[in-house]
Structure formats: structure tokens, C-alpha cells
Amino acid sequence: MTRFGKRVESLPDLMAEAARAALADAGVERPSAIVVAAMSPEEFTGEGNYGSLVGTHLGFSRVPAIRVETATSSGVAAVYAAFATVAAGLHRSVLVVGGEKMTHVPTPRVSEIIGRSIDPHERTYGTTMPALAGLITRAAMYRRGLTLKEISQVAVKNHAHGARNPYAHFQEEVTLEAVMASRLVADPLRLFHCCPISDGAAALLVTAEPSAVRIAGIGQGADSIAVRYRADLTSFPATQAAARAAYAMAGFGPERVEVAELHDAFAPFELISLEDLGLVPSGKSGRATLDGETALDGRLPVSPSGGLKARGHPLAATGIAQIVELCWQLRGLAAGRQVEARVGLAQSIGGLATNNWVTLLEARR
Amino acid sequence: MTYETLAASRCPRCRRVVIPPARLCPDDGAVMEPASVAGVGEVVSFTTLHSPPEGFRAPLHIALVELEDGARLFCHGDETRGMRIGSSVAVEAVNSVFYFSHMGFADRARLFWRRTGARSEKVTAITRSFMKGMWKGRSGGAS
Predict the structure, then answer these.
(1) Each residue's pLDDT expressed in tens, for chain B with a length of 143 residues
(2) Which residues on neighbouring strands pair with residue B31, listed in sequence order?
(3) Are A331 and A212 in contact (CB under 8 A)?
(4) Minimal Cα distance from B18: which residue of A?
């Protein structure tokens, strides 16, 4: 993957940088197929036909390429397409590459473009992603008893992790006081509870050959695009369904997970997700976070990369970057932030939790 | 105070009600029937945007409200001061846009009386409301 942050390179250049690194790491010169993930390149950069664009840019113009999109979880959807293609025996090695280029676009316009993944009727009420996250945060504080301090500690922890990751957008720590005093974005959600706007790309190779890490399980969960159709705001049924599918495919449950990368686009989402995934007992995620259970040296390190908050969130790159981080962790290649683990879990949220994914990775050593 | 009636759709199969009206039930795909619901409900959650998207004035108050029969809708409002999750609000449509407004004590009392029927039901409802109030008072600090 590339370093995330404000990058001057074009999106095809960023994707090529990530793709070449992944191919070199796998020792593969030429993949037999390519799956590209990009959420909104037409709007952000004005380019389309991304499968062919990236294939040609990489010098693989005759390698079959497709593009996959599930809003902010597009990266894992591309991994899923590659996994299914290899599992079906259609190809032996599939390159997955995803990315987004956004920092050159003014913030209100970025919000508007990302907001197009929200139900059209609800958008007419000014419901941006932060607005819906604000509603969820207030409901979670009221119904689940989450405190502002517990929510803010997620950002503090993920910045501490990002400070040790050379690929992270933000590589500096923040204090609890700074998070809690940052400006209100969507009451009660504050600026430092929200992930940044980042550029970047990530890539990996899905192969039928034996490799150091295997995909033990991968599952998708869906929910209504309309938030008003949902009975509960304080958990994400799409994450729960994705987790059930992934655990069923793997043949084991959350008890074997030793490291996780979660989708903290907004800090309270990490706490909600910990419980949706069964990694922490119901009602205990806030306390576990304050007690350091999810820190690098804790019982279950969560987002050693820094998460969306500190590593950054270039939309379609994120789901792939989570899996790349876990591969490095399971292979012992995450210098500076290495944890001891054989099984890792990645969770990605698409839209406002309408299209979520859970992937389980296992080291073969 | 009278309450506006809002146009909705009801699924003949699972009985769920959605607003605004939709042709198909989002869950089981059945063709929905026209329905109408009273524009009164409880606040599920709310937020205030200080930098709203283009075309909206700051601060923008948004609430998600659940009406009596379970249908939820997004609304705008003038302010959220004093509002809490579970607060009763009246909802009205102006040019097809829903707006919430706080209900005063007298409005809520009238609504309460209208909702409950026979005398024994009223006693039960008053007791339940009192218990609910105590419960909210206990956990209110979290919001």
C-alpha cells in the first residue's frame, strides 16, 4: 500500500505504486486477472472505466479487469470478488487494488459526494454521514450508556497506534483533553471523533498457491439504505450478519481472534462494532477501551495501523489496507507496532452500515 | 390542538408502516397499501449540524422521530433545546418537508387522554407513564 494522507500523485499512479509493491511481495510478475475498487472516481477526478484504466496504466492492458463498488467498503468487496474467482477455479492469481483521491476537492464537496451513498429522501433533510453518525452517537450514549470519555479514548488509542505506522496519514498522538475539546461537528460528535479525508491506495494478491496467510472466512451483511427503516440505531445488523457468515465459513468464532482492524469512520463505531462482532461482551466495549484492552499491548489489539482515524480513510483503499495490515501482523512484518497473533479479523462498513464485511485471516506457520 | 395526519404505506404481509409512501415493502417486496398516521411521536435521536451541507442554514436541527405505529421519519425543527430522546413531538408537513415541534404539558395531557380509552386503561396508562418517568429520570444523565 501507499502512505495515506495528502498526496500529489494521480489516483492511477497511487494504485500502480500499491499494486507493484503487492506483486513484488508475492513474487508474481503478471496476475491472471485484476479487480479494482474505487468508490467515486468519476466525481473526485473525472475518470471512469477504472478497470481498464488501471490495467493499462500498470502495463497489463490485456489482463481482464473489473471494478467493484459497495460505497465505503468497496475495497473488501473487491477482495471478495477475487476470492470467489479463485475459489471457483476461474483464475489462479488475482490482483486486488483500490484507492481514492480526495484531498484536492473542497471539504463540503467531498461530504456531498460521500453523502450520495445515503438514501435520497433522507439526504433532502441535510443528513450527511457525520449527521447520521451524530444521531447514532446520541442514541448509543442514551441506550447503551456509552460516555464521551469512552468514545474519545478510541481516537486517542488509534492516534497512538498511527504514530508507530509509517503508512498512516496522522503519525502523532493526541490527548483525551484535545479530543473532548475539539469542535462540535454533529452534536454530540466532535471533529476528533471523525476520520480525515485522505488520498491513498492499497493492493494485495489473492492466489490459489500456498501462501503465508489464508482467508479463513469472508462474509457480507446487508441492511436498508434508509436509516428510518431500521428498528435500532445502536448496533449494525449488517456487521452481525457479516460476522455470522465469516465465522461459519472459518469454522471458529470470535474467541480465536487475536488482532482486529475495525471501521472507526466515527469513534463510537469502533465500540458498537466490538460488540456486534462478539469480540467484547455486550455493554463492555467502553470500559474495555478505557482499560487498554484494545491497545497494542492489550488483550485484543484493535486497529494497530491506527484505524480510519489515524491511518486515514481513502474510501475504496480502506478495506484492502485493513487486510494488508493484518497480513503484515500475521507474518511478523509490522515493525514498530507488531503484535503476537495467528488469527486476525477485519471489519469494513459500507455506506451508513448498509453493506458491511467481515474477513478472517489465519497465519500458516 | 389537532394533529396532522400524514400519508404513509402499510405492508399487507408484515404490517410495517413507512413514511413517505413507498410502492414496495423494503423487507419482503409486497405491494403496500395506502395508510395514514397521526403526526405525533417520540424522538429516537437528534443532532445539530453547525456546518450543514449546501442549501441549508446553520444551525441545522435534525431529528429522527418514531410515530405511534412504529413508522420513523426524519424532520427539521427550530431548536432542540430541552429536547431529549423519548420527548414527545408533533410532526407536520410543510411543502412535503416534515417539521417537528415540542409539545407542551397541556398538549401531552390531551394526547394522553385521547390515546387511552376506558377508565381502567387510563389508570394503567397513568401508572406506566409514571414508572417510565422515574426510569428516564434515573438514566437521563447518559444523554
Answers:
(1) 567 899 999 999 999 999 999 999 999 999 999 999 999 999 999 999 988 888 898 899 999 999 988 999 999 998 888 899 999 999 999 988 999 998 766 666 655 555 555 555 556 665 666 665 555 444 333 33
(2) B24
(3) yes
(4) A229
Residue-range domain boundaries for chain A = 11-104+197-363
Best probe of the B interface among A127, A137, A233, by most B CBs < 10 A, is A127
The Cα–Cα gap between A47 and B66 comes to: 42
The whole-number pLDDT of residue B102 equals 80
What is the total residue count of chain A? 365
Minimal CA separation from A187 to chain B, in Å = 5
Inform me whether the C-beta atom of residue A134 falls under 8 Å from chain B C-beta atoms: yes
Q: Are strands B88-94 and B40-49 parallel, antiparallel or unpaired?
A: antiparallel
Domain residue ranges of chain B, discontinuous segments joined by +: 109-143
Q: How many CA atoms are closer than 13 Å to the CA of A173, on its beta-carbon side?
A: 8
Alpha carbon of B39: minimum distance to chain A alpha carbons (Å)? 16
B83 reaches A (C-beta below 8 A): no
Q: What is the pLDDT of residues A128-182, one digit of tens each?
A: 999 999 999 999 999 999 999 999 999 999 999 999 999 999 999 999 999 999 9
| ipTM value | 0.93
The cell 487494488 sits on which residue? A97
B contact residues 20-79, partner A, Cβ 8 Å cutoff: 20, 26-27, 44-56, 60, 62, 64, 71-76
Place of cell 446487508: A222
Structural contact between residues A157 and A267, judged by C-beta atoms closer than 8 angstroms: no
State whether residue A262 is helix, strand or coil: coil
**H helix or E strand, kind and range, residue A232:** none
B16/B23 Cα distance (integer angstroms)? 13
Taking the C-alpha atoms of residue A79 and residue B140, their distance in angstroms, rounded to an integer, is 44
Q: What is the DSSP letter of A212?
A: S
In CATH, the number for domain A11-104+197-363 is: 3.40.47.10
Contacts of A31 (CB under 8 A, 6+ apart): A23, A60, A63, A91, A93, A94, A95, A205
Tell me whether B94 touches chain A (CB under 8 Å).
Answer: no
Query: B69, B138, B70, B100: which is closest to A232 by C-alpha?
Result: B70
CB contact B100 to A (< 8 Å): no
pLDDT at B54: 82
Cα–Cα dist A353/A221, whole Å: 9
How far apart (Å, rounded) are the C-alpha atoms in residues B37 and A259?
Answer: 48
All cell numbers assigned to B43 = 424522538
**CB A127 within 8 Å of CB B62:** yes
Which among B26, B47, B55 has the least Cβ separation from residue A187?
B47
Q: How do residues A226-249 score in pLDDT, each as one tens digit?
A: 999 999 999 999 999 999 999 999
β-partners of residue A93 are A207
Block residue for cell numbers 462498513: A349
